Amino acid sequence: MLRKFSHFLVLLAVMVFIMFLMWGFTGHDFMNLGNFQSMAYQMPELGVLSLAMMIAMLTSGINLSIIATANLSGIVIALILTTYLSPDAVGGSTFWVIVIAILAGLIVSALVGALNGFLIAVLEISPILATLGTMIMISGISIVLTEGYVISGFPTAMLAIGNGDLLGIPIPILVFLGCAVIMSVILNNTPLGTRIYLLGSNPIACFYSGVDNRSVLFRTYIISGLYSGVAAVIMISRFNSAKADYGESYLLLTVLAAVLGGVSAAGGFGRVSGLFLSLVILQMISSGLNLMGISNFLTLALWGIVLIFVMVVNYFIENQQQGRRIA
Amino acid sequence: MKKLLTRHETYVFLAIVVFSIIITSINPSFFTIENLFDLLKSYSLMGTFAIGMLFVLISGGIDISFTATATITGYVVAVLLLKYGEGLNILSVFLIAGGIGILLGLFNAVIIYFFKIPSIITTIATLNIYYGILTVVSKGKWLYGFPTWFGDFNNIRVFTLYTADGNPYGLSIITVIWFALILIGWFILRYTILGRSIYAMGGNPASAQRAGFNLLGLNLFVYSFMGLMAGIGSVIQALLVQTVAPNSLVGKEMDVIAAVVLGGASLTGGTGTMLGTILGVTLIAIMGNGLTLMHVSSLWYKVIIGFVILVSVGVSAYRSKRSTRKHIITEVN
């Protein structure tokens, strides 16, 4: 209990520290409602994708295909919207077309998840390889569907999902919070969640406890795919367009966010609350550096350093705890 | 014969033969010596990276950062060429690039070994550190206009033939360099204690350590060898296109991993051969080249590569599952 809690507290302290650091460097530019609002618009895409990565990592797997999945389902939504609606369409039927388009996108992402699940659970291909293969194939399908072009021009009702607000709170952050709560409930309050943690920490023990490992893995990757689909909805709505290679740099960031948030790369450990804090930390670093006018690429390098730093600190903490247990 | 059927390489080879027959029947210009030499030259880059990747995969690790390493070594070499162009020769260029590559590889190995951070996470991080810093320092500028001797080296052919209309073609020196690296890699893996130890470590690190293998040394070797190949590859890339761009290599790491995996190397370590890797690179090469020659839109390239990878890893997973007859999923990493 103390261990789980201490990681959370460390993250909380880091978050507060970085907030004051950025405040000190950029002054009022950082500490104002406008900046926090713009952060709340930027975080959700990465946030939902990180949840998709997290659940795969909890089973000691990985899902390299989340970005490709998100792009494919974004393209499917975009194709339906641009085929049946003009950008200035309004009214009841518009609403239903959007709902159907989004549902179609989510179904596509769940299907990709099911394909991953089949490859990993039934054929027993290692998750890195299986999702590497689907990543390449799915992004290939996206390229074929779009011929490499950008699809744009959605009705305003669609754009509201990524750019609108409800009582001053940006809608995308509400979507993200919803996704985070659902993920937290799945992991902590359902049999599936318990089995995911068990499978991640010891697949053999899990199997002999009477758990159907295949079904757990299969469902894990479907959920991971579905979350990629939700990220797609936010992403295409924010960009007002869909393309085969949007957001490719997010792949590293989702792993980084998950590991920083305390998700073990070996599986079995990690909580949504930790992931949430790590996302806030990453977003504050990125916004703060951006306000200071520092190159995006330097931010990229910095994130890499942060990732290694966190892993090294984790290593020492674990070492110390193991030492104590033996003594 | 029976032994042949159990080997992954046999199936990759059959796939190559089948693809070649299909492509040739649609466009006979595929099966010409000229096209073969062209392919051998243009895929020397991927082939060189693949040699390093094979070593890392056999050792049980993975290295995503080699494209960033190659970007750095290529850029340093390009800057030196532009500044002291006439004072350098091809050997010194390879030495400089290889040396820097080795250093960057050692850095990966140290982090992976001492802090027990999974190699995929370490190298994802170093990829971004190397690439981010280089892009900031270089400001994303393209470098070109290298000394003439550097351009001339690219055109050296070991022997020259002529097409019907008088165009010269032949076996490029770059292909020869690649072949030499293959031979060295093959020799190390097959006939040296070092090579066998890498297999041992990849197969089971705990047993290898108890059997007295020096895991630190092996890790240092494997990742610095990958760095060396990245450095040599970057010079090959500079020779081939006579331009060094900071963004030309990063993003292609998965293609190389895919080629090596197609050749039968497993991500869990301990398996993989040089022959399989060459066949994997060949399969990717003739598919890319064949699609062009068959006038299939290049849009389909990724779909087909992805599909072939899935079929390949699926078949080998199915075969290993049948041979072990284990009913539990013990291999989730």
Going across the major beta sheet of chain A, what is the strand order? 1-4
Distance between the termini of chain A: 20 Å
Number of helix segments of chain A? 13
| Helix content bin of chain B | over 70%
Low-confidence stretches of chain B: 326-333
Structural class of chain B, please? mainly alpha
Please give the order of strands in the largest beta sheet of chain B: 1-4
Distance N to C terminus of chain B: 33 Å
Individual helix count of chain B: 15
Can you tell me the CATH class of chain B?
Mainly Alpha
Tally of individual domains of chain B: 1
Over all CA atoms, what is the radius of gyration of chain B? 20 Å
Largest sheet of chain B: 2 strands, antiparallel
- Kindly state the mean pLDDT of chain B as a whole number? 87
CATH architecture term of chain B: Orthogonal Bundle
Q: How many strands in all of chain A?
A: 4
Beta-strand share of residues of chain A:
under 5%
Oligomer: heterodimer
Proportion of helical residues of chain A? over 70%
Secondary-structure class of chain A: mainly alpha
User: Radius of gyration of chain A in whole Å, from Cα?
Assistant: 20 Å
Chain-wise SSE layout:
The complex is a heterodimer of chains A (327) and B (333).
Chain A: H1 2-26, H2 33-58, H3 66-84, H4 92-122, H5 127-146, E1 151-152, H6 156-163, E2 165-166, E3 169-170, H7 171-189, H8 191-201, H9 203-208, H10 213-239, E4 241-242, H11 250-260, H12 272-291, H13 296-326
Antiparallel strand pairs in A: 1-4, 2-3
Helix pairs in contact in A: 1-12, 2-7, 2-10, 2-11, 2-12, 3-4, 3-5, 3-10, 4-5, 4-10, 6-10, 7-8, 8-10, 11-12, 11-13
Chain B: H1 2-5, H2 8-26, H3 33-42, H4 44-58, H5 66-84, H6 90-115, H7 119-138, E1 143-144, H8 148-154, E2 157-162, E3 168-172, H9 173-191, H10 193-203, H11 205-210, H12 215-241, E4 243-244, H13 253-262, H14 274-293, H15 301-324
Antiparallel strand pairs in B: 1-4, 2-3
Helix pairs in contact in B: 2-14, 4-9, 4-12, 4-13, 4-14, 5-6, 5-7, 5-12, 6-7, 6-12, 9-10, 13-14, 13-15
